Amino acid sequence: MGPALVQEGELMLQALLWDLLAIPGVKVVVLRDRRLPIPAGFSGPIQWVAVERDPEALFAELLGSCDAAWPIAPETGGVLERLCRTVALAHKPLLNSPAETVAIAASKLATARCLEAAGVAAVPTELYRPTGAPPPGAWVVKPDDGVGGQGTYVIEPARPARWPDRRAGRHVLQPLIEGEALSLSVLFANGQSRLLGSNRQQVVRDGAGFTLQGLTVNGVAEDAQLRALAAGVGRALPGLWGYAGIDLIRSAAGLWVLEVNPRLTTAYVGLRRSTGLNPAALVLDLWRHGVLPEPGAGRRDPVAIHFTAELPASTAGDARRDEHPECPAAVAGDDGLFHRER
């Protein structure tokens, strides 16, 4: 996992910790890679994971002492799906979409088919088959379960084709659609949705691929089209629950869903400052009472988030800068607050 994704995971964890600790009565214990530093301002218990240990096994062990879990992990390789399934098998409340929905959203091909079947405009997606000549036009090739643009590149008529090796895992093809890169921050429950953020992404062409350099949370005016798209995604994937993100492209032809992220996204980092609402508290209220916030709740101030290419320095010892740690997982509970299961 590259430094950029590590940094995004760090930002998400830090924001989630601040939001959870601002809620009266909530205590948090964190499962943490030993190569990373203690989160800024956090004095709660940390379960350190050494390089040679299995973080998923430790996650399962830690669940026994907690009342609920909120994993921060990529979909790649089924990591997030397995963590969510582990929480369900432990009969603990999961503050995230269930494993079955994560499995669908983790696949760009499966997601596109679900959205299209529900009448939601998705970027046309087909399975890459390593036979024959490249199709005409410009295409984006990416891993079916990829995150953060890793392994994504563009094939254009003017540049030599660079097709993935058959052994590199399942890839998909999508036409290159020119337009504005946006994302939505949404709360979902039982097919319903509430839009919290409509965000402008700073995506640049980096060689043959793409790099997300930053974004502006609520940098795009919320409108009926964006709300309708979020509602359509909720109906197409009714298992989505809690916070999730939607990546999309706004072209001259309209809005096209690129992918659905059934987890925290980087835009979460700026939501509290942008809206004045505590999104973690909204998720807990949703779990306890089953109620989504009112439409249009909170203000919509633009908040810019920029990335660097640096890994955080370790203060826990056992740091190895030539290795890239997995994204951390946050587990909330052990305070008497989470005693009802959904």
UniProtKB/TrEMBL annotation:
Residues 315-342 are annotated as: Disordered. Residues 112-288 form the ATP-grasp domain. Gene3D superfamilies: 3.40.50.11770, ATP-grasp fold, B domain. The keyword Kinase does not apply. Keywords: ATP-binding, Nucleotide-binding. SUPFAM superfamilies: Glutathione synthetase ATP-binding domain-like. InterPro entries: ATP-grasp (IPR011761), ATP-grasp_PylC-type (IPR003806), MfnD (IPR024710), MfnD_preATP-grasp (IPR040803). This is Predicted ATP-dependent carboligase, ATP-grasp superfamily.
